[in-house]
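Consider a typical record:
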Amino acid sequence: MLGLFIIAVIVMVAGFIATMMIGQSKSNKKADSKYFQHTGKKWMRLTGIYIACTVVLAIIMIVVWNT
């Protein structure tokens, strides 16, 4: 079970890093000049998604660990 937890965390961290790399890429900044407008809402939404995924993962791991 610990192995599954480690794999899930690795996937989440890799997704976060990939998201940041795409967001900061030169081609992304050049292609969409409006990308950096209203960034607060985008960051809050992205943070909410990562928090929700972390909570769901924790709940699943608690349920699996206790059965």
